[in-house]
Amino acid sequence: MTSRPGRTTWGVNTIEAHCRDATLATMTALPRGAWQGVARATGLLSPDGEVASTIFAEMSALAARTGAINLGQGFPDADGPESIKAAAIRAIEDGHNQYPPGPGVPELRHAVADHQRRRYGLAVDPDTEVLITTGATEALAAAVLALAGPGDEVITLEPFYDSHAAVIALAGATHVPVALTPSATGFRLDVDALRAAASERTRILLINTPHNPTGAVLTRDELEAVAAVARERDAIVVTDEVYEHLTFDGAAHVPLATLPDMAERTLTISSSGKTFSLTGWKIGWVHGPSALVTAVRTVKQFLTYVSGAPFQPAIADALYDDDAPRELPESLAERRDLLCDGLRAAGFDVVVPQGTYFVVADATRIVERLGLADGAELCRRLPELAGVVAIPMTAFCREGSPAHARLRSSLRFTFVKQEQTLRDAVTRLAALAG
Ligand code: PMP
Ligand code: GLN
Hints:
The chain is of the alpha/beta class and 434 residues long. The protein has helices at 10-23, 34-41, 55-66, 82-93, 106-120, 135-147, 162-171, 191-197, 220-233, 272-275, 290-300, 311-320, 324-345, 364-370, 375-386, 402-406, 419-429; strands at 69-70, 130-134, 153-158, 174-183, 186-189, 202-208, 236-240, 266-271, 283-287, 349-351, 358-362, 388-389, 391-392, 410-414. 43% of the residues lie in helices and 15% in strands. The site of glutamine has 5 residues, from loops.
C-alpha cells in the first residue's frame, strides 16, 4: 500500500498545500512562458528569475509555520449555514455528480437572475445572460481573456486585487491602474485621474466594489464617473461585486449595471464564497448582455468547462433566502470595530472600511519606531513581534506607482474571524504599542 497523508483537519491540509506552494520558490531552470508575465504583473518574480507563490499563500504559510494568528488571507474561520451544507450533501446523494450543463444548472441561473431582479431591479434572462463559473476568479479570467488583448488597455483601481493584474497580463493587455486615495470618508476614487487614464485604447474598466483591499464602497458619483468614461470610450465595464452583501453602517452597494444605459455594456461578476462563508466551494457567476456572456462562455468552457455540480443547486436555494446574507454584515461590522479599536490602541492609523472582510492600517509610526524599512518588513516580522500575520498593502500596488509609495507602510488585516480570535489578536497586537 502506498503511504498517504492521514485524513486531517482543514488547517493541516492547508498547511501542506502552502508548503508545496512554497517549494516553487526554490525551483531552478523554469521554462519560458505566460507564467512569467503573470508573476511579473503580480510582483511575484524576483530580478534573478525566482518566483514566489501568492502573497496570500505566503502569509498563510508564515502563520502556519509560526503559530501566529492569521489575519492575512481573507477566509472565514467558521463555515457558512448548515442548511446550505446539507443541501449540497443531499445533491450528492441525489446524483448531481456528473458534468452540469456548460452555462450552469438552470436552477442556479434562474436564482442569480431572480436575485438581481429582487435586490437591484435588474432584468436578466437566465437562459442567455447568466453563466455559472468556478468562483469569481474564473469569471474574471474568462471575461478579460475574452474581451481584451495586445494593444488594449484595461483600467483597474489601485490598490487592486491580485488576480485582476494577473489576468490582464495573461491576456497580453496593458494594465492602467487608477488610485483610490485615503480620506476622512475612506478610500475614494480619484475621478480626475480616472478620466486622465482613459484613452481610445481603453477596452475594459475593471472595477471592484465593495473593494478589496481597501474596504471602500464606491459611491454613486464615483460609479457615474466610471460609467461616463465607459460610454465616452465605448468600453466594457467588468465589475467584481463579490462583497455585494458585506457593507456596513448603511453604505449602499450600487451595482454598476443599474446606472443609466450601463446594463448593455456591463459584465457583473459575483460569487457565493463571501456571501455564504463558503469560500472553498468556488461557485461564481457573471451576467450581462447575451453577446458579452457568449464571448465569456466561449473562453470559460476551455478553462474548466464546468465545475461544482452538487454545490450549484445548494447555492441556488441559498440565493432565494434574502435573510441569509443579512446576518453576516451585522456581525462583521462588530468584528470590524473590535479590530479597528485594537489596531488604533497598538499604534496604527486605521481607515475604517465600509464593506468587505478587510481594514487598511497605516503602520508608519510603528515602522519608524522599530527602525524597519516598510510595511513588508513589518509583515515578515509581525509573527515574532506580535504573533499575528497581515498582508503588506504594497502587494496590491504596482512597484513605483504613487499608490505603492503612499501605502508602503500600510498593512491589510482581515476581520472575518471569530470574535475570540480577534480578541486574542488585539491582545497580542498591543505589544506593538510604543
Ligand atoms: N474578487 C475579489 C475582490 C476577491 O476578494 C476575491 C477573493 N476573495 C475574488 C474575486 C475571488 O472570488 P472566488 O473565490 O469566488 O473566486
Ligand atoms: N480573496 C482572498 C483575499 O483577498 C484571497 C483568495 C486567495 O488566496 N486567492 O485574502
